[in-house]
Specification:
This protein is of the alpha+beta class and 309 residues long. The chain has three domains: 75 residues; 100 residues, no CATH class; 121 residues, eRF1 domain 2 (Nucleotidyltransferase, domain 5), CATH 3.30.420.60. It has eight helices and eleven strands. A six-stranded antiparallel beta sheet has the order 1-11-4-3-2-5, sandwiched between helices. A five-stranded mixed beta sheet has the order 8-7-6-9-10, with helices on both faces. Strand 9, helix 7 and strand 10 form a beta-alpha-beta unit. Helix 6 crosses helix 7. The longest helix is centred in the first third of the chain and has 65 residues. The protein is elongated, with a radius of gyration of 29 Å. It comes from Natrarchaeobaculum sulfurireducens. Keywords: Coiled coil. InterPro entries: eFR1_2_sf, VLRF1. This is Peptide chain release factor.
């Protein structure tokens, strides 16, 4: 009997179709395996981020508890501790800057996470046991006089790279603490961006937008892993837009300092992937529409933690 398929040339086509179907099945299997691998990686990353957030909260809680216990055990506590800004902060900075001592009687130093010992300065001889309070205040800028009459720790918005210096006055710059000159300040969240160009405390230019980014949990229709992949892609696209907007703002403002405020993890991702080099960053809880959120971020950024030892 005649093979109709062979006669009409359909046999080779059927064979080719079978080959393609087999290849399609293999590719589908590879795709599903890759999707599962990425889903596992995404889930692991999300879980790691959640664990990091929980650990950071726990660390902050334990640090507060440790500080309270130290105060209970030693009787040491700050004579004054508060967050200040604006005119009150300007008055304190001016007052500290007006202090005059004998030659090399006033120390200005930046205490970082390495602690007081890394300064190479004998502060215990001046502060005694109260040097423990300075350790707790780090990172900060400290101002201490050799008579022990003045002992202040400040955590300014712009932390300077300053070597310890003994002089007849404290080496403080207003731009570490107060909005001074021209600068760019941006608020960056996972779904919101706003940037302003400022002269002192006044905003002279503005740009902002929001992006459509899914919430942190699936509400149905997607597996959680797929939902999180979509959300991560949306955040990546949003941060690309943020980086482009910042580059445009900085192109228009060459040599102008850039300050970033917002969600800490988002800021770290943005700077790592964009190559931006902000002069300072701050984690702030500013939400809502872009323009008022930027105002809240500006207010929070230019705030200093003050501790009198």
């Amino acid at each position: 009997m005649f093979d109709v398929d062979a006669l009409l040339g359909r046999a080779s086509l059927k064979d080719r179709i079978e080959e393609l179907e087999e290849e399609n099945e293999r590719l589908q299997a590879r795709y599903e395996a890759e999707s599962d691998r990425r889903a596992d990686a995404t889930t692991a990353r999300q879980e790691a981020e959640r664990r990091i957030n929980r650990l950071e909260d726990r660390i902050a809680q334990l640090e507060g508890e440790l500080e309270r216990r130290r105060e209970d055990e030693t009787g040491l506590e700050y004579r004054r501790r508060e967050r200040i800004r604006g005119g009150e902060l300007a008055d304190i900075v001016d007052r500290l800057a007006s202090v005059r001592t004998g030659a090399e009687g006033a120390l200005t130093a930046v205490v970082d996470d390495a602690g007081v010992d890394a300064l190479g300065v004998d502060l215990e001889g001046v502060l005694g046991e109260r040097v423990a309070l300075l350790e707790d205040a780090a990172p900060c800028v400290c101002c201490v006089d050799d008579a022990g009459l003045i002992a202040v720790a400040l955590d300014p918005p712009v932390r300077p790279g300053l070597e310890p210096i003994w002089d007849d006055r404290f080496a403080l710059e207003r731009e570490w603490f107060l909005p001074t000159g021209r600068y760019v300040l941006a608020l960056v969240r996972a779904d919101l961006f706003a940037v302003g160009v400022y002269e002192g405390g006044d905003r002279v230019d503005y740009r902002g937008f929001e992006s459509d980014v899914k919430g942190s949990h699936s509400k149905g229709g997607f597996s959680q892993a797929r939902f999180e992949r979509i959300r991560d892609d949306q955040i990546d696209d949003h941060l690309d837009r943020c980086a482009d907007a910042l580059e445009e703002s900085l192109d228009d403002e060459p040599s102008t300092p850039l300050y970033l405020a917002g969600q800490r993890g988002v800021l770290e991702t943005l700077t790592d992937e964009s190559g931006l080099e902000p002069a300072a960053t701050a984690a702030v809880d500013a939400t809502g529409n872009p323009k008022p959120a930027l105002e809240d971020a500006h207010h929070a950024f230019w705030t200093t933690d003050l501790r009198v030892l």
